[in-house]
Structures are given as C-alpha cells and as structure tokens.
Amino acid sequence: MREWILVSLCAVAFAKHEIYSGWKSYYVAPASQEQLVILGSLESKLDVDYFVRPRLDREGVALVKPQYQEEFLNVLDNEEISHRVHNEDIKSQLDIEDELIEARHAEFRARSTPEKPYDNYLRLDAIYNYMDEVAANYPNVVKQVTAGRSFEGRPIKYLKISSTNFEDTSKSVIFVDATIHAREWITTPAAAYAIHKLVENRTDPELLDNFDWIIMPVVNPDGYEFSHTNDRFWRKTRSLDHNLISFLCRGVDGNRNYDIHWGTGEDSDQNCAETYAGSKPFSEMETRVVRDVIKENLSRMILYITLHSFGSMILYPWGHDGSLSNNALGLHLVGIAMADAIYAKTLPIFPRYRVGNSLHVIGYSSPGNSADYAHSIGVPLTYVYELPTILPDDDDYDEDNETDDHLNGFHLDPKYARPIAEETWEGISVGAKRARGIVRSK
User: Fold this and answer.
1) Does the active-site annotation cover 79?
2) What's the pTM value of the predicted model, to 2 decimals?
C-alpha cells in the first residue's frame, strides 16, 4: 500500500506541469511604441501570455504555446523586434522550481525552525494558520476577519491591526492587499511580512500610534491554490458564469472587475482572455470584499497599496486612459519616497523601481483595476506595486547557462522571498508616513 501511494504521488507530481510540455518562453525587447503595440496584439492573435510585460526600457517574458511558436517568431523577425530564448522547456523549469521550494522547506525542517509565509511560497492553509496564530497571540492588537467565501467556498481573510481597536478616529487607515492575480506568488510573502513588522517585530511605534492597518495577504484564494496544484500560471479567479464558454474558460481577472471604466479594455468581454472583466462590475466575491473594506473605512483611509508582480514599478491612477489625477503631485511625491526607501534596502540584483502613471509606465491600459477604483471613490493615495524580478542585462547574458534559476525561471528563487518582503515593507512604511503628512497638510 505504501509503495502504491508513493507511486501515485510521484505520478501526480510528474503530471502537475504536463500542460506546459512543449511550451517555450522568450525575452522580447520592443524598441518603439509601435513594436510594443504589436507585442500586445499577439496576446489575442496567438494566445501569448506575458509573464513579465515588456516595456520600452526593459525586456519582457512571453510564454508561447507549441502551435504558435513558429508564427510568433516570424512576426518578431518581420517586425524586427529583438528577442531571444528565455527557456526552451517550461515544464522542466517548473519542475525545477518545485524542487527549489521543497528544498527551502527542508532547510527549515532541518533547523527545527517554524517556516513563515514570508520565508517561502507557502500554501493557503499555512498562510491562514499564520494569520490565526498572530491573531491568537496578540488579541489586543489584531482582529482577524473572515469577510466572505470564494466561489469554491474558501474563506477570504484579512487582519485588522490597531493599538486602539479601530476606535480612535484621529488615526489614518492603511490598506494593503496581495495576490488578486493567483500566479504572483511573491506578493504574499510581502503582505505577510507587513503583518510580522506591525505585530511581532515592532521597531517603529509611530506605525501603530498614528495608523490603523488592514492587511489581506490572499485576495484570490481559489486561484492561488489552483496555481499550486494544477496550473502554475493561473491568473484569474475560479468562478463560473453558468454558460458553456465559462465552463471551458473559468474565472475573471479580478483587477479588471472593479466599477471604474469596467469592460472597456481589449478582450475584456472574452471569457477565455486572461483579462476577462467578468459579466458585470463586482461579479466576483473577491473584488466585492476589497470594495467593502475600502468603503467601510473610507473616511479615514489615506493609502491603499495592492501588491502585484513583476516589474519593479510603483504605479498610480489613472490606468484606463493615462490621464492624471487631480492629486497627481501628491501621488508622485509619495511614490518617489517609497521607491527611494525600497532602493536603499534592495539587493544589487534587483532593478530600481520606476514611478509614474500606470498607463504611461507599463504601456497598456488597465480599466477596472482596484487602485483606480479606490482613488475614484475618495482614497487620496492609491498604488499598484509591481514587485521585482531579475531580468539580465545583455552584458550578463550567458546562452549556455541553463541552470541559473533566476535567469531562466518564472518565479524568484524562494531564497529571495524574505529580502523582497523586507524591502517592500520599507516602501510601505515610508509611504504611510508621507501620506499622512500630505493629507493632513491639506
């Protein structure tokens, strides 16, 4: 029986990434706005998935199915778009990355040290267990809230962190969420580390004296679990619209589902598209939970940060058309302060953050996103953090180096989870202080 179980587990592990057999990924480097538009059009024409979106000043990473690879390369050659292979065998690379995560688990087991969600890429139960533990150990500071249940019935949880039980109305509220896009695993450790710094390792009394905090580490629990068990690159929720197309192509892009220029993006009405906006605004329980948190605390909320990856960017509204908010100066000044704080802490391998209007920095529109929505209903400072990955400079590129996990991989080696969480926290904490100064001066 034990042998049968072992064989079954091995078969599951082997089959886990089988859907990516034959897939390849490519670095793409557009040299003009026209080339950037062409690359964007390939998402719908050739079902290209940009794991790291290209920009004019930085390469992107495009995932291409076997049946489209020849045509994809022909387009790039004909349009003279610079490109090179990122990974020849996506399935094998994902298997290697699973081994890296397991090796990280083993390090903590060997030391008999509890593994925290900011140390590695942990499953949902482990993240929620950590939140339970923090709430139980620090009841005078932490209140855990189960705000609803996902389409598949998982709880959607967040922590309210306050030295005054959210009763001191002179204190400003900061809201940080993560992992609305299921495959963006690095965002969860960053949110969990914020909990750690606010509750377990308080080194800055001002952060609880002047602020109440809401931290939601996993907005999309269904998608997050599915990205661990079935499809590493799953991005959307796991809901169904109860029609045939929905059964074939499940889920909604939660960051296109908010009621701010909803449904105006390219492919936003296509169920199978990665950016499908849903059947209506707030069709998803996940986005309704975030909406309700914002509205409930709107009178005191001065800063909302939603954590995404990858790109090393701090983005602010408006994302649908590139126009500037009436509070653009404040948004930019606080954004720069946050980027500088991150840069002072970051490892040399990570690029410096760019700060600016969402559309202008990333080069495409994002109607229906949460940062735009929060800003539109009155939160003065709202940002998308695109956490870093490592894309090599041409001078550093070694075509024969196929084993270097951070050059050829799809998530950062888990050894980088804590350093990124630490530097992200520096940005968040500085952002809170600068935001309070700007809002109180008005």
Assistant:
1) no
2) 0.92
